[in-house]
Structures are given as structure tokens and as C-alpha cells.
């Protein structure tokens, strides 16, 4: 049977995925979250005509011809306005952010004024009407739509929501991604490691990737190569309400590759197993109720490349985030052999050259090598059955963010 193409695999994984519902969070916890609803202003900003400078509130007509001497009748500071109103020939001392008194229409900055010993103030420069006044509502008016649904909250958006009177914000729930490592050979970093054992690293990498996409992580640890034990862990993820379960390893065809059977035993409806991709051919996908299960291959590079291609968009969709793979065009700096029936994702370094991007594939492409993946900033994407390519040929690269 021909292997499932990568694009079709992604379509199947994303089929029917809806963003999670909203939850209210305190505004100081909203950074990095996605707005589930449009946010409107609950107040007007500034709420009054405000001075933008330190100086004197005046009537422009009084300082139109110089010299102009005005009598000082009070002061308006930020937080405490001048109560009265200003008439002809009068000025009010005013500071940045303070309400402009009634009757005044202009701010004479203090650098252009001289205070006289008799309590008067003299304008030493004319000033155009309305200068240095921020009109009420300059920033926003009550009821204005300020931030749209789907907006990623960052520092300015959080500041704006706070200024508009919000203390809590409706954001999309963060998807819960359960991660389960399988294999008798695995130990956690820092644990005693027998001569035939290795450190389970995939869960950390996959967890970091999922978190960067907005997920919460349920770490199910390492489960031994035992079908019943794996089934139990799968059910745990389901009962915990995970929207996604990622299993690591045991996806291939070996006698100890028990994940598929364990998932079926847990009641999974299998979507597909094995796709036309290198690395990552044994990828598995299915559903257990609403929980989507991605069975990633154990090889560290395979699991992380699969996570880039399939887990990221899935988590993004659940969390209402926009997601567009960063695909670019580059020129090969070295030749590539013809490809077989699997789409190839070749670890590469991509750098700017005089005529655009230059992609340099790493010479060794073993799917166990994290050093190459950590050194790579891109994957060269080679279509199935692509003919051999010379150095200088165009290629497509997927940038690894
Ligand atoms: N006869 C065949 N053998 C294999 C095939 C095949 O088609 N026919 N496919 C190969 C491909 S491609 C891949 S990829 C691997 C994937 O195998 P599994 O998903 O069953 O992974 P494991 O055998 O469990 O592990 C592979 C490798 O990765 C290490 N590993 C596993 N989990 C972790 C972890 N959490 N952290 C770090 N490293 C991990 C494990 O120790 C193995 O070295 O199968 C090929 N075989
Ligand atoms: O597909 Mo495996 O992931 O080639 O090593």
C-alpha cells in the first residue's frame, strides 16, 4: 500500500479540530494568551482634555501678540484639577497629565514663559491654539473595539486592556498535551543509567515545543515496554482531559513496538499509521473520544521533526492561534541525491547570501542525531521522487523557529 502523503496526514490530524472554549484570567496572567472575544473599552482615555506638557493653561487669543502678561489664578496637577474656570487675561499653572481648566484652550510650555515676582506670568513666545492638549478620547472612547478575538496578548495589548478598565480577560483555554515515553532502555536525566540504557530526551524537547505553542503539559513519564502498562497510561491521559496525547517510541514494526496495540486496547480509533516522510515514517494518528493521539517515532530527530509538522499546528488550532509554516526558497550549496517515495526533511543550515538564502545540508542525516538538529535552523524539503539536484539549484526550506 502506498504511504500516506505528509499533507494528507496533516489534514486528517486537523480534521474537525475546534478551538477550546474561553476562560477568564487575571490581566497579569494574560501575557502570551489568545483573546477568545473582542475587547471593548470600558472607559474613555484620556477621560478629560489633558495637558501634554508642564506649563500654563491659557487662552490662545491672550498670547497671540507679545509681550503678553497673564495673572496666575491657580494650578491643575495630575490627579487634582483646578476647580474654577479661566477668563480673559488669566493663566493656570498646569502639569503633564492634568485636566485642562474650563476656559483654557492652549498650553504655553514653561520654557516659553516667565513667572514674574508679582504672581503674574509672561508669555515670551506665541503659541497656536490647541497646542499641547490631548483631547478627551484621543486614545479611545468608551465602547470602542480595541483588541480583536484571536489576538496574541503581549505587553502593549495588556497595557491597553488595563487602561480600558479590564481586570480579567477572556482567553482561549490552553490545550493539555500529555506526553508518554515508552521503552525499557530509557531512564530520566540524572537517574542511574545502565550500560544498555539511554536518557529519555524526547519528552523534554516535545514538551518545550508544545509549550511554545501555548500548551500545558501532562508528563506521564516513562512506561516500560508492556502493552497493559502503556494502555493504562493512555487511559490516564484520557481521564485527565488531555486534548492531545503524544506517545514517544515503540511506533515501528519491532517485536517491542507495542504502542499501536496498547492504543487499540485503550479503545483508540486508528486514523493512520506510517506516512511518506523521512524522518518519521512510523507516525501514528488516531482518536480516543475527543483526545487526539500522535504516536511519534522514538528516534529523537524523527519525533521532533514530526512534532514540528503535526503537533505544532494541532496545538495552535486548539488554542485558536494562527499557524503558518515558515517555508522559503533557497539555493543549494551542495548537491543532493535523487529522492525515493518519502518526502524528505533534510537538516540544514540556511544563511543569507548575495542573491537570497543559501541552504547547506548536513552531511550525516541520521535520525538519532540531536547535534545536527540542534545545529540546524531549517529543513530542506525534498518532494517524493525528486530527481538529483546540483549545487546552485533552487530548493524549499522550512525554517525552524
Ligand atoms: N524493520 C524496520 N525497522 C524500522 C523501521 C521500519 O520501517 N522497518 N522504521 C525505522 C524508523 S524510520 C524509525 S523512525 C524507527 C522508529 O522506531 P520506534 O518508534 O519504534 O522507536 P523505538 O524503537 O522505540 O526507538 C528508536 C530509537 O529512539 C530511542 N528513543 C525512544 N524513545 C526515546 C526518548 N523518549 N528519548 C530519546 N530517545 C528515545 C530508542 O532508544 C531508539 O534508539 O524505527 C526504525 N526501525
Ligand atoms: O523515519 Mo525514521 O524517522 O527515518 O528514522
Automatic annotation (TrEMBL):
One of its GO terms (cellular component) is cytosol. SMART domains: MoCF_biosynth. It comes from the Bacteria. One of its GO terms (biological process) is Mo-molybdopterin cofactor biosynthetic process. GO terms for molecular function: metal ion binding; molybdopterin molybdotransferase activity. Its EC number is 2.10.1.1. Pfam families: MoCF_biosynth (PF00994), MoeA_C (PF03454), MoeA_N (PF03453). Residues 178-317 form the MoaB/Mog domain. Its cofactor is Mg(2+). It is an enzyme of class 2 (transferase). InterPro entries: MoaB/Mog-like_dom_sf, MoaB/Mog_dom, MoCF_biosynth_CS, MoeA-like, MoeA_C_domain_IV, MoeA_C_domain_IV_sf, MoeA_linker/N, MoeA_linker/N_sf. Pathway: Cofactor biosynthesis; molybdopterin biosynthesis. Keywords: Magnesium, Metal-binding, Molybdenum, Molybdenum cofactor biosynthesis, Transferase. Catalyzes the insertion of molybdate into adenylated molybdopterin with the concomitant release of AMP. Belongs to the MoeA family. This is Molybdopterin molybdenumtransferase. The lineage of its organism: Bacteria, Pseudomonadati, Pseudomonadota, Alphaproteobacteria, Hyphomicrobiales.
Amino acid at each position: 500500500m502506498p504511504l500516506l502523503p505528509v499533507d494528507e496526514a496533516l489534514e486528517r490530524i486537523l480534521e474537525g479540530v475546534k478551538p477550546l472554549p474561553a476562560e477568564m484570567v487575571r490581566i497579569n496572567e494574560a501575557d502570551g494568551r489568545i483573546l477568545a472575544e473582542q475587547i471593548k473599552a470600558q472607559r474613555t482615555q484620556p477621560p478629560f482634555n489633558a495637558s501634554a506638557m508642564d506649563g500654563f493653561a491659557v487662552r490662545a487669543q491672550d498670547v497671540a501678540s507679545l509681550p503678553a502678561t497673564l495673572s496666575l489664578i491657580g494650578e491643575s496637577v495630575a490627579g487634582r484639577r483646578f476647580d474654577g474656570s479661566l477668563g480673559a487675561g488669566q493663566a493656570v499653572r498646569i502639569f503633564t497629565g492634568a485636566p485642562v481648566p474650563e476656559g483654557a484652550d492652549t498650553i504655553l510650555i514653561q520654557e516659553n514663559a516667565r513667572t514674574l515676582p508679582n504672581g503674574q506670568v509672561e508669555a515670551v513666545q506665541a503659541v497656536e491654539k490647541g497646542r499641547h492638549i490631548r483631547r478627551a478620547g484621543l486614545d479611545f472612547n468608551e465602547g470602542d473595539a480595541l483588541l480583536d478575538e484571536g489576538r496574541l496578548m503581549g505587553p502593549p495589548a495588556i497595557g491597553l486592556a488595563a487602561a480600558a478598565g479590564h481586570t480579567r480577560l477572556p482567553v482561549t483555554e490552553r490545550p493539555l498535551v500529555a506526553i508518554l515515553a515508552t521503552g525499557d532502555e530509557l531512564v530520566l536525566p540524572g537517574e542511574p543509567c545502565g550500560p544498555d540504557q539511554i536518557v529519555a530526551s524526547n519528552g523534554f524537547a516535545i514538551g518545550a515545543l508544545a509549550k511554545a505553542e501555548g500548551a500545558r503539559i501532562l508528563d506521564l513519564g516513562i512506561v516500560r515496554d508492556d502493552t497493559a502498562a502503556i494502555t493504562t497510561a493512555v487511559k490516564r491521559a484520557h481521564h485527565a482531559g488531555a486534548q492531545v496525547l503524544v506517545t514517544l517510541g515503540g511506533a515501528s514494526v519491532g517485536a517491542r513496538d507495542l504502542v499501536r496495540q496498547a492504543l487499540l486496547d485503550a479503545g483508540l480509533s486508528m486514523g493512520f499509521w506510517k506516512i511518506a516522510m523521512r524522518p518519521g515514517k512510523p507516525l501514528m494518528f488516531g482518536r480516543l473520544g475527543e483526545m487526539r493521539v500522535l504516536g511519534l517515532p522514538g528516534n529523537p530527530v524523527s519525533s521532533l521533526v514530526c512534532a514540528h509538522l503535526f503537533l505544532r499546528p494541532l496545538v495552535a488550532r486548539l488554542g485558536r492561534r494562527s499557524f503558518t509554516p515558515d517555508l522559503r526558497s533557497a539555493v543549494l550549496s551542495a548537491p543532493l541525491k535523487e529522492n525515493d517515495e518519502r518526502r524528505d526533511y533534510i537538516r540544514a543550515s540556511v544563511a543569507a547570501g548575495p542573491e537570497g538564502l543559501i541552504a547547506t545540508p548536513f552531511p550525516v542525516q541520521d535520525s538519532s542525531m540531536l547535534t545536527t538538529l540542534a545545529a540546524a535552523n531549517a529543513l530542506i524539503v525534498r518532494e517524493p521522487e525528486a530527481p538529483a539536484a546540483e549545487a546552485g539549484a533552487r530548493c524549499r526550506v522550512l525554517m525552524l523557529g
